[in-house]
Amino acid sequence: MTSQNLSRRRFVGSAGILTTAAWLSPRQLFAEKENIVLTARKRAETTNITVQALRGNVSALIGSGGNIAVLSGADGKLIIDSGYSTSRAKITENLVKICPEPIKHLINTHWHFDHTDGNEWMHSDGAAILAHEHTKQRLATTTRVEAWDFTFPPAPVDALPNEVFDKEKTLHLNGSTIALTYYGPSHTDGDISAYFAEADVLHCGDTWWNGHYPFIDYSTGGNITGMIKAAETNLARVTDKSIIIPGHGKVGGKAELTEYRDMLVTIRDRVAALKKEGKSLNEIIADKLTKEYDSKWATTFITGDVFTKLVYAGV
Ligand SMILES: [Zn+2]
Predict the structure, then answer these.
(1) CA within 20 to 30 Å of 24's CA: 34, 60, 213, 215, which one?
(2) What are phi and psi of 81, to 5 degrees?
(3) Ligand 1 being an ion, which residues bring their Cβ within 5 A of it?
(4) 308 CA to centre of ligand 1 in angstroms
């Protein structure tokens, strides 16, 4: 095993804990820290994955890291985000249920491991990978995320996007128009949306966490202002009939997305006002500004206090 493969293995293991930790209580999370690599990889291997038919030839695969979208048809499958590599068997099993055609196109909404960890195997199965140029840059180099206290080694060459774009790109496959649009810095500095025009299905990547406070990755160019701007962009793009796939959480619609945007704006305004008064981060956390939102949104490792900290960093 080369040192790159070894570090890749460590990366995969740690990758598992960070998002599967989303579904654990703090007590479980603490216990997991004892053996982060083995337990995280083990969990991702056994995590259940389900197929959700959405509209037309668009489906979602739920359960491996970030939510995956699948466009099926004679041109081969087009996949949005690749989940964990350790979910390969379960993802493959479910993809076959959708249609027999191979994966031909893979699009990454951003560089985070829970959306790109399966890139290498999907590419080896024949998929060309497309992403924003910053996503490729982040994957190609050593990348540290301070909030996770983790340094990611460069991804293997086969996991890197084969093609990148800057502002937007439109694809025509399987009778569908797929519009890819860069948000600008928001959750990271490489987030894009993917809109299946005929089916009216929008994949928002991690600019939308349905029913969870979102993570904002300041280490790789994200910020709360950009997150709110991205939520506004998403809202302007959809109607009450649109189906919206969040990066995390249940597939939803405009009503849930609106509620999420309103939550972000309210908490941002509260934190910004107190910071402007000169209050410190610890004083603001002690004020529990997210209190009435926590029962609905503090459902992952992003607690109300963690989210307050993420907002404070950017106002
Ligand atoms: Zn992410």
Answers:
(1) 60
(2) 75, 145
(3) 112, 206
(4) 18
